[in-house]
Amino acid sequence: MIRNLIFAFLSLAGVASPAQQIDYEEYDLANGLHVILHEDKSAPVVVTSVMYHVGAKDERPDRTGFAHFFEHLLFEGTEHIARNEWFKIVTANGGQNNANTTDDRTYYYEVFPSNNLELGLWMESERMLHPVINQIGVDTQNEVVKEEKRLRIDNRPYGNILKAIKEKLFTKHPYRWTTIGEMEHLDAATLDEFLAFFDKFYVPNNAVLVVAGDIEKKETKRLIERYFGSIPRGEDVVRNVYKEDPITQPIEATWEDPNVQIPMYAAAYRTPSMKERDAYVLDMISTILTGGKTSRLYKKMVDEDKKALDVGAFNNSQEDYGMYIIYSLPMDGVSKEEIINAYDEQIKELQTNLISDKEFQTLRNKFENSFVNSNASIQAVADNLATSYLLYNDTSLVNRSIEILKSITKEEIKEVANKYLNPNQRLILDYIPEKSTTSK
Q1: Fold held by 2-228
Q2: Is the Cβ–Cβ distance between 131 and 99 less than 8 Å?
Q3: pLDDT at 438
């Protein structure tokens, strides 16, 4: 009964009011660790999280997959947490935890009943200061990652769509490889290479600690100093700057997938950093085109013309660049040219005419609702605080991003569509069934 109540608290933990401003306090420890505190006593729950500024873009071209690999490896244990004990400790104390990796950052977090705040801080400090990185752990997690890649990518229909796009859309930037990387690179890596990667990136001055929930700030600060204050500062991380040449001619590419029977036709455009205002506008454009069954592309291609089984679009914003991707599954007998022309018809409409007042208001309402939902739990608030600081260099965006979206005009939507979504600036990808499969 007690355990059920605890998990009920964890699942219900949320901000007190949908319109509530996220109050926070931030400061730096002497070792460079940035700390953000958010106090919310609406539920007896606390989130302890650390986001490291390391992702797939920080890897070598012949050693891809390291950041994602460490997402797994740093659960192996520490000098004071025995191997295979991490998750047992968390669940035995009524908590849950996880981690995730992108091209730009790696994020670890625990959600505990608030009386286990100290436990969460101790565990994250152990991960930062005392991880056990040895050959046993490397070999074990290598198999785990291989199985993940098989299940989520290699054996999944359309699982390699991002890989097929990224390797053509980027030629200089490390975004050209996938977050999970290549298994032969992990197989070839030595233990010393893994240790060097940890020493370089998993240091307090390359991270942000967020503690959110039912906390007392004075006591929380004392515990943070106790567990993190003595961790040595690492060398400053110096990153290379990669500048892609503009795409001025259309790129054509084909990818064969043995797991699919229906082709997918995608158009992909390189877009600006997530920190640019234009990235917010592109988010709006993706909603106009394919944000639900009333969106322009879905209505036209799926409902009216019956050219596609499904169609989608999204703006994948990242720290240095983004990708705007439109994709669809054609109906039998519909050619690639017909699909691409259907994309272009709707894009041209956006580039030529302002959207109506009614559609614009509906669009703004959707984004306002999405913003409220994005901060609907303590866990989400912690993630958003960390992301706003680490990737946008502006923690206040946790509250201000909706104001940016609300300030976007119909004219800007038209301008941004003209700026980025042109035929000579894109990749056209034929993601098709493997030819040997179709001939059987």
Answers
A1: Cytochrome Bc1 Complex; Chain A, domain 1 (3.30.830)
A2: no
A3: 46
Predicted model pTM = 0.93
- Residue 16 above 60 pLDDT? no
Tell me the per-residue pLDDT of 273-300, one tens digit each, with 9 for 90 and over.
999 999 999 999 999 998 888 899 999 9
- Given a cut of 60, whether residue 191 has pLDDT beyond it is yes
Say how many CA atoms lie within 13 Å of 63 toward its Cβ.
16
- The answer to whether the CB of 20 falls within 8 A of the CB of 27 is no
- How many CB atoms are closer than 10 A to CB 266? 25
CATH 3.30.830.10 in the chain: give the residue spans.
2-228, 251-438
* Closest listed residue to residue 375, CA positions, set 40, 113, 8, 14: 14
Tokens representing residue 229 in the block: 């204050």
In this structure, the number of other CB atoms found within 10 A of the CB of residue 190 comes to 10
Grouping H, G, I as helix, E, B as strand and the rest as coil, residue 162 is helix
| Tokens of residue 309, six digits | 């089984």
Q: pLDDT (tens digit, 9 = 90+) per residue, 31-40? A: 999 999 999 9
Distance of CA 343 to the CA centre of its chain: 26
| N-terminal to C-terminal alpha carbon distance within the chain | 57
Domain 251-438 architecture: 2-Layer Sandwich (3.30)
Q: CA 270 to CA 332: how far, in whole Å?
A: 30
- Rounded to 10 degrees, what is the CA torsion of 165, 166, 170, 174? -170
By residue count, the chain amounts to 440
A 10 A CB-CB count for 2 gives 7
Cα–chain center distance at 217: 29
